[in-house]
Specification:
CATH architecture of the largest domain in chain A: Orthogonal Bundle
CATH superfamily of the largest domain in chain A: SLC41 divalent cation transporters, integral membrane domain
Number of domains of chain A: 3
Mean pLDDT of chain A: 88
Distance between the termini of chain A: 62 Å
Oligomer: homodimer
Number of helices of chain A: 23
Strand order of the largest sheet of chain A: 1-2-3
Strand content of chain A: 5-15%
Amino acid sequence: MEQALIDATLERVRAALEAGQVDEAITALTTLHPADRADAFADLPRDEQAEILPRLDAQATADLLEELEGPEAAEVAAHLSPETLADVLDEMEPDEAADLLGDLPPEQAASALAQMEEADEVLPLLAHPDDTAGGLMTSAFYALRRQTTAQIAIDFLRTQRPDAETPYYLYVVDRFQKLIGIVGLRDLIVAEPQATVESIMKRDVVNVPVGTDQEEVARLMSRYDLAALPVVDGNGKLVGVINYAAMVDVIEEEATEDIYRLANVSDGDLQVFSPVRLSVRRRLPWLLVNLGTAFLAASVISLFEATIAKLAVLAVFQSIVAGQGGNAGTQTLAMVVRGLALGEIEFKDAWRAMAREAGIGLIHGMIVGLFVAIGAWLWRGIPILGLVIGMAMVGNLIAAGIAGTLVPLTLKALKLDPALASAVIVTTVTDCVGFGLFLGLATLFLPYLK
Amino acid sequence: MEQALIDATLERVRAALEAGQVDEAITALTTLHPADRADAFADLPRDEQAEILPRLDAQATADLLEELEGPEAAEVAAHLSPETLADVLDEMEPDEAADLLGDLPPEQAASALAQMEEADEVLPLLAHPDDTAGGLMTSAFYALRRQTTAQIAIDFLRTQRPDAETPYYLYVVDRFQKLIGIVGLRDLIVAEPQATVESIMKRDVVNVPVGTDQEEVARLMSRYDLAALPVVDGNGKLVGVINYAAMVDVIEEEATEDIYRLANVSDGDLQVFSPVRLSVRRRLPWLLVNLGTAFLAASVISLFEATIAKLAVLAVFQSIVAGQGGNAGTQTLAMVVRGLALGEIEFKDAWRAMAREAGIGLIHGMIVGLFVAIGAWLWRGIPILGLVIGMAMVGNLIAAGIAGTLVPLTLKALKLDPALASAVIVTTVTDCVGFGLFLGLATLFLPYLK
C-alpha cells in the first residue's frame, strides 16, 4: 500500500542526489512516515546512504536507527564517529538504544556509551537478555509518589519533553520505589486538581519480574488488554515498562517462531532474502536430522522387502498410508502448539486432549480408510488390498492423533518449546507406524493379495 | 500463571454456592481481574452460572460478556430477558456489543436492539463484516472541531464518563466530519489552555477505509506503532476507531490462521477442545483432498512398478527422496507465507525469491544428496544406487525451492490467501517429482543396480 509512495519518494531522492542536492534529498525523505523513511533509506545504495547520513541531525539519525531492522541499524551506526553515535543514542528511546548497543561490536558500544550523557538510562537495560521482560522494557516512564496531587503531576508532565513513545500511564511507587498503583492520563485530566494520585490510582497492577520470558509477557498483555506492562525487580521495585509496540513485535516474533519451527526452520529472524550462507546454516541441519529419521522409516520398509519383491504394488500404496498419517499428525500438532502458545491448553489437559485427538483420528481413519480402500480396490481390483490399506489407515491416524498431542505436551513439560522438533518426531512416528502397519498387514494377508 | 488463582477462587465460589451464599460467591469472583473472572465463570457448571447471573448488575454482566469468548458470551446472553440484555448491551463497549449481537439469534438480537438506549452507537457497526476495519472499530471515540481550545477539550473530557477502553487520542474533524488530525491526551495536557487543537494536532494521520481487510489493519498498526487506527467512510468521514486490543486479537488470529492453513486446518477458530463434529468437519475435507493428491503421487510410482518388481530396494529409498523434498518445500513455504504476511516480501520480488530458493535447493540438494548417496551405498553396497538417489535428491530439492516460492506467490497474485492449500500443492509437487526422478533414473540405470 505504502510501497508506491516509498518508490516515488526514492526516485525523487536519487534524482536529487545525482544533481548533488543532498538537502533536497533529505527533504523528500522527511515527507515520509519514519517507518517508511527507514525503508526508503535501506533501499538506497551504500554510497548514497553515506552522502545523506552525515547531513542528518542527531534526532533524525535516532529516528532512522529506531525504525531500521537490528542488523541494518548496526551497519549504519558503524559509519558514525563515537561522538556522533553517542549523541544519537542519547536521542533514541532507551530500549532501542540498548538494543542497538547490543548489536554493535563491543569496542564501538563501549566507546559510545562512555560518551553518552544519558548512559545511566541505558546501562541497566543492557543487563537483560533480549527475549525477557528486562530486554523489552524501556526506562522512559514516569513514577510518582502517592501523595502527589493531580495538578502537580500535570505540571510535572509539562516540564518533560513531549515524546510520542512514552506510555499513556503514570506509575505510583512507595518510598522504596515499589510499584503500588497506576494512573491513566485520562484519570489525571478528569480528577480534581487537589486529589492525590493515591486516591485516583488503580491498585493490583498486573506486572512481571525482569526475567519473565517474552512469550509470557505477550500472553499477559494480550489476555488483560494492557497497553503497557510494568516490570519489577526481585524486590518489587519498578525498573521499567514494556509498551504495546514492543509487545506487538513479540507477538509477531513468537508466531513466526512457531510457524518456522513447525516447518523446521530454526531461526525466527530468517527471511527469504537473508544471506544464503545463514539460510543454509539454519535450515540444512534440520534437513539432515530429517534424513536420519527418513533412514529410520526406510529401515521399517526394508523389513518387508521380501513382501514388496513379491508384490510391487505395495510400494505404490505405502506412501499413501504414511503420508496421510503425516498430514493428520500435522493438523493435531498445529492445534496443540498454537493452543499452548495462546494459553488455551494447559498441561493438565494432556490426557483429555490425547484421548480426544485419538478419537478424532479413529473417525478420520475410518472415513479416509473407507475411501482409500474403495480407491485401491477399484484401481487394482484386489478387495483384500483395500481392506489392508483401510485398516492400516485407521491405525496410523490414531497414532497421528496421539503423537500430535503427546509430543508437544511432553516438550512443554520438559520446559522446551513445544514447536521445537515436534514436526520431525511426529512425522517419524507416522511414517514408521504407517509403513510398518501397512506392510506388516500386507505380509500377513499376502496369500490373498496376489 | 494466573490459573492457580482462578482455581482457588473457583473453589471458594462453589463452596459459597453450595452454602446458598450467592452474594459471597459473587464477591469472590469480583476479586479476580475481569479476564480471569470470565474464565472462572465459564468453568462453572451451567446450573451454578444460572444462580449467579441474575444477581449481577448490568455493568458486571457487561464486563463478563466482553471477556467471554464469542460463542460462550452468546450462550450466556441467551439466558437474559430482552430488557436485561438491552441494559447490558448499553453498558458494553459498542464494538463488543455489536459482536455479541452478531452472534445472537436474529430475533433475540432484534428485540434487544429495539429496547437499547444507545442502539445508534451500535447499529452502524453491525453493517460491516467481522474481519474488516468496520467490523473491528468502535464508535466510542471523541471528535473535536479544529478551533476547540485545549481547555475546552479537557473540560469536555471531564463531562464524559471515564472509560478505560477509550483510546488515548482525540480526533480532529472539519465540519463535514472529515478526519484532519489527531491530538494525544499528553499533548492536550502539555498545551497552553488557550491553544486550539488545530495548533497542536498531528496531521497526516494514518487511517483506513471501513472495508479494509483485518490483516492489512494489523499490518499498518504494527508497522507504524499505532495504539489506535481511525476508520473513515468513502467520503473521508471519521466513523470509528480501532484500538490496539482489537489489533492484538487480529494479529494473533491471523498468525493462528497461517499456522493452521499451513497444517491444513481450515478454521482459525478451531481448538483442541472444540466439538468433535466441528473438528471433523474442518479437518476431514483436507485429508480427503490430500488423499486425492496422494493417489496422484501413487500413480507416478505405479509407472515404475515393473522396475520395483525387479528391485524391491527402490521401495525402501523412494520415500526418502520424496520426504526430503516435502521438508525442504515446507521450509521455503513457511518463510514465504510469513514474509508475505509481515510485508517483508512483495510480489515484485517473486523471481528473485524463486531464483534464490532454487539456488538454496541446489546447495541443500548437493549436501543432502551426498549424505544420502553415501548412506545408501554403505547400507546396500551398491554405489550406483547412491548416485541415483543423490541426483534425484538434488533435482527434488530444487523443485521444492521453486514450488515453495511460486505457489504462495501465485495464490497471493490471485488475491487468495497464500497459506491456503499451499502445503498440499507443494508436497504434491515434491512427491511426484521425487518419486518420478528417483524411479525414472533407477529405471535408466537398472542394469547397473542389480
